[in-house]
Each structure stands twice: as C-alpha cells, then as structure tokens.
Amino acid sequence: MTTALTAQPPATAFNTASAANRELIIADGLCPQIAELLPGALHELVALGQSQNPLAAISAELEQRRREGRRVQTLHIVAHGSPGALRIGGQWVDAPALIANADQLAQWGLSAISLWSCKLGNLWTNGFERPQ
C-alpha cells in the first residue's frame, strides 16, 4: 500500500508571530467525521491517507519540512481513538508501536505533540512503561 499525504493551507493566514512557532496538523484523511473538521483548521494541515506505517509517513513529512527550512515545533495529530490506541492512515498506533518506533520518534525534534482523539485515554496503561 502507498502512503497518501495531502497538504492543505490553513483556513486563515497566520501572522508572523504564529509562523515563528510552526505548528502542523496531521489528520487521519480516511475518517469521514474528521474530514468534516478539516476545512476549519487554523494551522497547516496534512491529511494522511492509507499507510502501512503512519509513523514513518509522519517522519518523512517532518523531515521534508526540516530540509525546506520549515521546521515543525508543535505537532497536532487528529485521529479516531479507542482506549490506549489511535487509528491513523488505516492503522492502529498503540504503546507497543510507539516503543518499537522510539528511535524514529526521537528524530522528530518537536517541542510538543498534541493528540486529538476520542476515547484515547492513556497510552501508557496496560503494563507498558513510558520510555525516557
């Protein structure tokens, strides 16, 4: 399967103060309920389509932006959720997936990650310890 990333401009242009704090929204482009919310996005948006590895797709997007001089500081991920996992790009991402991809995630170099999802709860329950 291929990864489809669709970039969309923000609903309103952001001023130079907010541009200094680069924020990016990565949203599950496969969820119809999320798709309804996307036109109102106030930050630059990338809709993630079907992906065998959504974390790798996000990594590639962040790396491309770094190379272009548009380093992301705050990442917002909007996805469907269930207790302890979120679904993005047609795949479930849970604590074991995050741990398995910890080296890749460390390369993201973000100041903050915000997860926006229904029913997600705490990824670090179910006996998994949070990596340091």
List the helices and strands and how they pair.
Elements: E1 5-8, H1 16-20, E2 23-28, H2 32-37, E3 44-48, H3 54-67, E4 74-78, E5 80-82, E6 85-88, E7 91-94, H4 95-100, H5 102-106, E8 112-116
Parallel strand pairs: 2-3, 2-4, 4-8
Antiparallel strand pairs: 1-3, 5-6, 6-7
Structural key phrases:
disordered C terminus, 132 residues, alpha/beta, 27% strand
Overall shape: it is globular
- Structural class by SSE content: alpha/beta
Distance between the termini: 33 Å
What is the count of DSSP helices, taking H or I runs of 4+ residues?
5
Query: What is the strand content?
Result: 25-35%
Determine the fraction of residues in helical runs and give it as a percent range: 25-40%
Tally of discrete structural domains: 1
Tell me how many strands there are.
8
**N-to-C SSE string, H for helix and E for strand:** EHEHEHEEEEHHE
Give the biggest sheet.
5 strands, mixed
Given as residue ranges, the uncertain stretches (5+ residues, pLDDT < 50) are 11-18, 126-131
Radius of gyration: 14 Å
Strand order of the largest sheet: 1-3-2-4-8
Mean pLDDT: 81
Characterization of this structure:
This protein is an alpha/beta fold and 132 residues long. The protein has one domain (5-116). The chain is 27% helix and 27% strand. It is built from five helices and eight strands, in the order E-H-E-H-E-H-E-E-E-E-H-H-E. The protein has helices at residues 16-20, 32-37, 54-67, 95-100, 102-106; strands at residues 5-8, 23-28, 44-48, 74-78, 80-82, 85-88, 91-94, 112-116. The strands form two sheets. A five-stranded mixed beta sheet has the order 1-3-2-4-8, covered by helices on one side. A three-stranded antiparallel beta sheet has the order 5-6-7.
